[in-house]
Amino acid sequence: MAVETPAQLDRERIRELIERESGRLDARTQGSAAMYRRARESLSGGVGSSYQARDPWPIYLTTGEGPVVYDIDGNRMWDFHNAFGSMVQGHGHPAIVRAVSERVGLGTHFAATTEDGVVVAEELKRRWGLDRWRYVNSGSEATMDAIRIARGYTGRDTILKIFGSYHGHHDAVMVSIGVEYDRIGDRENYASLPYGAGIPEAVVDLTIAVPFNDAGAMERRIKRLDAEGRKPACVIMEAAMMNLGVVLPEPGYLEEVREITRRHGIVLIFDEVKTGLAIAAGGATERFGVKPDMVTLAKTLGGGLPAGAIGGTEEVMSVVENGTVYQVGTYNGNPLVMAAARASLCAVMTPEAYAHLDDLNDRIVSGCQAVIERHNLSGYAVGIGAKGCVTFSPTKIVDYETFKANQDVEVTELAWLYNMNRGIFMTPGREEEWTLSVSHTHEAIDAYVGVFDEMARELKA
Predict the structure, then answer these.
(1) Same domain, yes or no, for 298 and 327?
(2) Is 20 exposed, middle or buried (0-12, 13-18, 19+ CB in 10 A)?
(3) Cβ distance 266 to 371 under 8 Å?
(4) What whole-number distance in Å separates Cα of residue 138 and Cα of residue 302?
C-alpha cells in the first residue's frame, strides 16, 4: 500500500527528466517519424485508432516474438503493453500458430458455425457457469449487444454504468469517461456527459453513471430512477476497474451489487473484456466469486485475432434464442478466430499458465513495492493475474473521483517515457496498466523492476 509519509519530489526535476526522456525517445524512433509522415497522407492521424496516436508521432511495430516486440527502428522491447491486454498468450504461440495455419487452407470464412465455435462455447460455459453464448468481433460489439439483450429482456431503456469506466466505442457507453476533476460533480447524482463529439444527447440521457466501490450510492440512484419511471434495464460494470490502472473491488462490494440488482430485477453485466481469461481461467467471475447474469469477453479470447463473446443465463438469453432480440454479424464465429480461441483455451491458458501468471505478478508487484518503499515514493503497486500497475498516488484509489484527485500525472508520464527508452514497451496514457503473458519470464520482470528502480533513484537525485 501507499507509503505513509512519502518524500516530496522536486517538480522542476520531474519536468527536466520528462524533457530529457522525450528527446531521447524522439531520437531513437526516427524510423517511426518517417513512417508517420507517410502514414498521415492516407490514415487519419497516421493510425488505425485514436488510441494508437501519440505526439509527436506514434511508435510503429514490425514483429512480436513471445514476450518481446520490435519497432520499425529495430528497438527490441519487453512487451508489457500486449495489445492493450489482448496477448496474454504471448506473440506467435506455437499452438495458436499451428491451429490457424491448419484452418486457413480449409476455408477462411463461411458465415456458418464450425465445430471449433461449438467447442469454444462449451469451454466458456464450463469456465463461467453461464448457459448460453454468442460471438461478436470486438469488445465494443460485445457490450453493445449485451446491453441490447438486457433491454430486450427487461423491456426498459435506461442503463447504469460506473463513472469513469470504458466499455467500448458505441454511443450508449461513451458517457462519463475521461471527465476533468472539476466536472465530476456530486457522487449521489453524477451527470451524464458525452465522451467526445458525435454522440446524440438523447442517447447520453439514457446512460446513468454511479461511483465504483459504493453500493449504497448505486441503490439510491436506482430508487430515484425507479421513482421517475426509469428503472434501469441493466448495470454494466467491470468487476475490477481496468482503465484507471487497476482498481480492485473493496470486500463485499460486488456481493452487494449482485444482491441490489437481483432485488430490483436489473440485469447485471460484468464487462470482462479486460479481465476475462486474463486474471483467472473464468475471469473476474471466478476470481471474485460473484456470478452476474451476463458477461462480455474480447481481447484475450482470440489469441491476437479479433474476437468477442457474450455469455448469459438461459433465461436472459432466451430473448435471443426466440428471436425477440436479433444478435447478428457476418463475421461472428469466424473459423480462423474460433480455431485460435480453441487452441488458446485448450492448449495455452491452462491451470499451469495461470499459476505462472500469478507467480510473475507476485514478483513484479513485490519488486515494485520494494522500490517504492526503498525510495519513499508516493504510490503503491497492485496486480491480479496478468494485470497490474504502479499507481502514483499518496492515497488508495477506489474510484474515478479519487483517481482524478490524487494521481501524479507528471510522474506517470515520466514512467512511460523512462520505460520506452530502456526496452520496456508500455501502454500509452495515464490510465493504463501492464499486461503479462505466459511467455514472460523472471528475466522480463526483473528488467521492468530494474528500470523502475533506476527512475526512482533519478527522481531522488
Answers:
(1) yes
(2) middle
(3) no
(4) 10
Do 297 and 311 touch, CB atoms closer than 8 A?
yes
Residue with the three cell numbers 440485469:
267
- The one-letter amino acid code at 113 reads T
429 pLDDT higher than 90: no
Domain count, the chain: 2
pTM: 0.96
Cell of 6: 512519502
Radius of gyration of the chain (CA): 22
User: Does one domain contain both 210 and 281?
Assistant: yes
DSSP strand E in 346-412: where? Answer: 380-384, 387-391
User: What does the pLDDT read at residue 1?
Assistant: 60
Phi-psi region of 155 (alpha: psi -120 to 50; beta: other; left: phi over 0): left
Q: Which of 279, 330, 332, 339 is nearest to 308 (CA)?
A: 332
* 107-135 residue pLDDT tens: 999 999 999 999 999 999 999 999 999 99
For 179-201, give the DSSP string.
--GGG---TTSPPP-BSSSS--H
Task: Output the pLDDT for position 4.
Answer: 66
Cα distance between residue 394 and residue 140, in whole Å:
34
The Cα 14–Cα 460 span in angstroms is 10
Under 8 Å between Cβ of 412 and 437: no
Q: Are residues 299 and 398 in the same domain?
A: no
CA angle 170, 174, 180 (to 5 degrees): 160
The predicted-structure confidence for 155-207, as pLDDT tens digits, reads as follows 999 999 999 999 999 999 999 998 888 888 899 999 999 999 999 999 999 99
Domain boundary, last residue among 299, 333, 348? 348
If we measure between CA atoms, which residue out of 195, 188, 292, 186 comes closest to residue 238? 292
Instruction: Give the domain extent around 216.
Output: 94-348
pLDDT in the model for residue 185: 87
